């Protein structure tokens, strides 16, 4: 048994998350690292309870076999959430603290914005949490701050470049970009050569460029209307959703409408999540497309000379952060891209490091955002495609509450009391709702993994209801279906789930199969995914058609597809519960994150900047200045 | 001799800063900490070369005597800078590595924005630098990112509150602010009691408030025109200087003109620099005034319920970051407020910790931004007033180049070649320019400290020129005047300066005297400072008069004054070199940072958001992805 395992004393009823988190003294993170056979040169400490594990660990352990790879998804949730993060943590506490397995939990870093808004933190819940929860939810080791800095440096560079190009001749621009040195000689630097190559100019001496080549090189000729790059901030600031910039007198009337997204919506976050090495990150950041030239050609960060600087800003962010669960098992926290306009999964490098650290017979459990129709689908078709990693088991988290909703129960609204139907036995409602679970099971099984259903038990659930879900899960082809109570009991409440996951991993009979190949058209790929939703057809808006044509022409049709769809239904309509079918899926627009490496069709409108309520969480948050402890964080 | 001292091999001519920085392998920061008698529980590591020293060290060493306290200012500089940071570092390398003294250098954290713009880094230069210079210039330990987050959370809260107040009745607002709990009971939380107290309401049960009291409590009634709080970003983004926000459809037409400053211009940065403890920081952050009610009363962060959350975001930022010089002496990097709209000095807590760590006979050398007319003046009258610390010696850095400019030499422009006059001997020009040095000496002496002039020698300076400066310095009352060459030789080049500073510290004969007492009027304080500039009178704009009246009425006239004036002249006119006198100083506007604790009159227009040039530094910055090393940073 691992030396870092900590026995929990559980109380009933379950105390508040923060009280549970504060009741446990975390181990020094070097002890957690040591149990993973990490030496001090493998990681950088960030205080006593966090450490960044260096990417070089992957190279060092290259010859070692990987552990089992488990992804946790969920059924279509209610607005209250069905405990996917909590189950991910609880399962790992069971594997590590009760089943004597090497295990690493891989989680996303939450955005700091919602911590002060409505939602509160995201470190799990009850007796299945990552600690210290305030450090998990705030700043962590600065990765999101680095993304904000890099994203906004690029944004500033775009507008400033348009400004400078508008006031300078080709020759003046060129002279500034390639100034003479002390000896009067001009030269191109490294990043300029990548632009020259793209333009088909093979000359190496700036003096030899023709006036036409000078113009092509020095003038990006950005079409302001085409700019897709927005600024970001890790704060819920709704007043920045749409703004006009450049109204200062020095900017000479060069105003432009744009806006801010929350930082985790930055393409740089998606790059961080999908990258596989420092050199791969350098390349992806350099090839991010922020808009087109007036001639319609895509313009990249490297065209602007900024890909290297962005990489420098992100060089520490690429190392995942090691933390611990309440029961002393290790956690890697890394990246947290949006689950709609991006792929909603934690990072590839964290999973890779974790798989080497646990080694053969160990377990890496990673969470996929939203319902399995989105989270698990993107995990398979985008993340595993780029990582080359193969999962053996997919967990699908279900609750009686959500299944009743899918069976026709009344609407569930956050902040309002639950309807009577959700807290008293109603087996028929549960049975009817299992149609949602069944489709998630069959969709997920199609990837070639074994599916284990985790029924996250609430105190109001009846035996008959729970048993109905188990029956439905087996009928739909689940490898196993297990009732668990990790919220109330920690790892002990997920021991059966841990055993089931272990068996599922050890008994894989099929290879990994993607839902679609990359070499078909963008539309064919969208169709393959839509079919998995139950759609019978697709309707493209004019704008979507235009964008698909443009991206195809620009040579980006080989990329995987990342659907931006509501998580509250298989369909585009959040009110369609259960397993809708025969509907026409509307594609409103199509965008792309070329550096991250995917095309994202928009099914409906996605908010990328949350707001604050009248009484935000921050009213309750304070520092006890005597102890230095955070209070009121939920 | 300290065990961490590292012998430098100096090359001639002096290589590029980054090459010198990269030629030295830094010690693990725990070794530097150990030499200061810090145990691992006194600090948190942030990687191998940075550590945050915990504030608790001050309490633990409370009984211990302080070391000598030395402030480094400069004469009125050229736009190229006269090497104040470099001299600060070089002096410490001399004291620590050659004179066997306990020494700590206290420096400001530079803004990350200019690192990618024109300026490059700020870690010193030549053989007097802080290393690793990339970590010094980028992210550091996240303090500026924390400031950005806190500043912008407050900004978002202000606009959102106006929005919610505009759409809700008093009763609805109140019900949302004090919602009933599960038992149907309402209660005020801690932060609400501070607002109730301010409003003179002593009731503790929300149900007992009269409708009039409900209105007063729940409705801040912010006057949008009065909002002084701007958003910030640590990026040179000129297009954010003036913007219109709230143009999204959900914000229902509640548009407003505002803008972004660079993060170091945030009042929260000034708070960080001037705070003395966690509880003091909590108090300052809570009493920051962001605007007025429509009735003209100041509204604070605590009125908005957010002071605690801001403190939580800043809780780690209050701990200074320990780094090292090229010669292995310790450096504390902490806070970097603007030197015009704020006071331009590093933090009080870093200086306090440092003074205890070096103990009696040790030295703490801290830098004051801009010329001594601004930097040293604010160091004395604002920083020392709040800290209660007493400096013994003030260093004034001078260069032959700047003195020639003051003597009537041609204009010095960054990026353009220096005029012939600056690189050939011209003793008369130097002698004429010493009038500037002389006024800085007499102004600084008036505080009761001994003044040592550090003549930062360039290779083009002649013996006669250098000697003219020494003579002028003594004539003006300097304790000593020393020629130094730390840029070319590291600490060895500043040994004489170190000896002079030591003697100056050991021979103080006078107590510290402030330039003005706090209990006179705002105008009288402004006059006292203007007189030290050589002004014969002051002209207040109508706006300035209005603001002074308002701040006086609001009860803020007891605060010290922080002049926002150009550093390029004693006067308001940057072209007036030497020691102008008899001019009328115009006060265009008067603003206040109530939480930080000063009133700042604006003498002219101050840019609080820099821009990027056509070819920013970022073109040269990249990551060597094989070694993980930053290249091209200057």
UniProtKB/TrEMBL annotation, chains A, B:
Enzyme class: ligase
Keyword entries, A-Z: ATP-binding, Ligase, Nucleotide-binding, One-carbon metabolism
Pfam family, one: FTHFS
Catalytic reaction equation(s): (6S)-5,6,7,8-tetrahydrofolate + formate + ATP = (6R)-10-formyltetrahydrofolate + ADP + phosphate
Associated pathway: One-carbon metabolism; tetrahydrofolate interconversion
Coiled-coil residues: none
Key word Ligase present: yes
PROSITE patterns: FTHFS_1 (PS00721), FTHFS_2 (PS00722)
Superkingdom to which the source organism belongs: Eukaryota
InterPro entries: Formate_THF_ligase (IPR000559), Formate_THF_ligase_CS (IPR020628), P-loop_NTPase (IPR027417)
GO molecular function terms noted in the UniProt entry: ATP binding; formate-tetrahydrofolate ligase activity; methenyltetrahydrofolate cyclohydrolase activity; methylenetetrahydrofolate dehydrogenase (NADP+) activity
Database matches in CDD domains: FTHFS
Biological-process GO terms, alphabetical: 10-formyltetrahydrofolate biosynthetic process; folic acid metabolic process; methionine metabolic process; purine nucleotide biosynthetic process; tetrahydrofolate interconversion
EC number: 6.3.4.3
SUPFAM superfamilies: P-loop containing nucleoside triphosphate hydrolases
ATP-binding among keywords: yes
One Gene Ontology cellular component annotation held by this UniProt entry: cytosol
UniProt similarity note: Belongs to the formate--tetrahydrofolate ligase family.
Assembly and interaction partners: Homodimer.
Protein name per its UniProtKB record: Formate--tetrahydrofolate ligase
Organism: Olea europaea subsp. europaea
């Amino acid at each position: 048994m691992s030396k870092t395992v900590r026995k929990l004393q559980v109380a009933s009823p379950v105390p508040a998350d923060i009280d549970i988190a504060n009741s446990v003294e975390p181990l020094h993170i070097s002890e957690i690292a040591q149990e993973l056979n990490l030496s001090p040169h493998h990681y950088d400490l960030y205080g006593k309870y966090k450490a960044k594990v260096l990417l070089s660990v992957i190279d060092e352990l290259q010859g070692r076999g990987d552990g089992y790879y488990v992804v946790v998804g969920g059924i279509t949730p209610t607005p209250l959430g069905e405990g996917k993060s909590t189950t991910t943590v609880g399962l790992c506490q069971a594997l590590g603290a009760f089943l004597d397995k090497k295990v690493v939990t891989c989680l996303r870093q939450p955005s700091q914005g919602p911590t002060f808004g409505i939602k509160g933190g995201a470190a799990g819940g009850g007796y299945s949490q990552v600690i210290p929860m305030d450090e998990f939810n705030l700043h962590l080791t600065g990765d999101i701050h680095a993304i904000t800095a890099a994203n906004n440096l690029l944004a500033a560079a775009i507008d400033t470049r348009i400004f400078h190009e508008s006031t300078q001749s080709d020759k003046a621009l060129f002279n500034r970009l390639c100034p003479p040195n002390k000896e009067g000689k001009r030269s191109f630097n490294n990043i300029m050569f990548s632009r020259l190559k793209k333009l088909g100019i093979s000359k190496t001496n700036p003096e030899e460029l023709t006036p036409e080549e000078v113009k092509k090189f020095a003038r990006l000729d950005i079409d302001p209307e085409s700019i897709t790059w927005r600024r970001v901030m890790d704060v819920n600031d709704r007043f920045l959703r749409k703004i006009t910039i450049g109204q200062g007198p020095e900017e000479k009337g060069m105003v432009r409408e744009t806006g801010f997204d929350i930082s985790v919506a930055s393409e740089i976050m998606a790059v961080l999540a999908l990258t596989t090495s420092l050199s791969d990150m350098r390349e992806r950041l350099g090839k991010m497309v922020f808009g087109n030239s007036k001639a319609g050609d895509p313009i990249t960060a490297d065209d602007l000379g900024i890909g290297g600087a962005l990489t420098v800003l992100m060089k520490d962010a690429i190392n995942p952060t090691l933390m611990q669960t309440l029961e002393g098992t290790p956690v890697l926290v890394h990246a947290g891209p949006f689950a709609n306009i991006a792929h909603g999964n934690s990072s590839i490098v964290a999973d890779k490091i974790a798989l080497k650290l646990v080694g053969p017979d160990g377990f890496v459990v990673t969470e996929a955002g939203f319902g399995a129709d989105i989270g698990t689908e993107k995990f398979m078709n985008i993340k595993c495609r780029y990582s080359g990693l193969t999962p053996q088991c997919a967990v699908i988290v279900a609750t009686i509450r959500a299944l009743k909703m899918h069976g026709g129960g009344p609407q569930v609204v956050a902040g309002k009391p639950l309807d009577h139907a959700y807290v008293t036995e109603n087996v028929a409602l549960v049975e009817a709702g299992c149609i949602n679970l069944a489709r998630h099971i069959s969709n997920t099984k199609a990837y070639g993994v074994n599916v284990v259903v985790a029924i996250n038990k609430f105190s109001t659930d009846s035996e008959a209801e729970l048993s109905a879900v188990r029956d439905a899960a087996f009928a739909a082809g689940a490898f196993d279906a297990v009732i668990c109570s990790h919220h109330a009991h920690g790892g002990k409440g997920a021991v059966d789930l841990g055993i089931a996951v272990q068996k599922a991993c050890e008994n894989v009979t099929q290879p990994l199969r993607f839902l679609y190949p990359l070499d078909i058209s963008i539309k064919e790929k969208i169709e393959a995914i839509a079919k998995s939703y139950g759609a019978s057809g697709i309707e493209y808006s004019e704008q979507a058609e235009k964008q698909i044509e443009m991206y195809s022409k620009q040579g980006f049709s080989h990329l995987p597809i990342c659907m931006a769809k509501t998580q509250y239904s298989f369909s585009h309509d959040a009110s369609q519960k259960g397993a809708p079918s025969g509907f026409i899926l509307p594609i409103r627009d199509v965008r792309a994150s070329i550096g991250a490496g995917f095309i994202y069709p928009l099914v409906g409108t996605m908010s990328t900047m949350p707001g604050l309520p009248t009484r935000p969480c921050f009213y309750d948050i304070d520092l006890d200045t005597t102890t230095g402890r955070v209070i009121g964080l939920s």
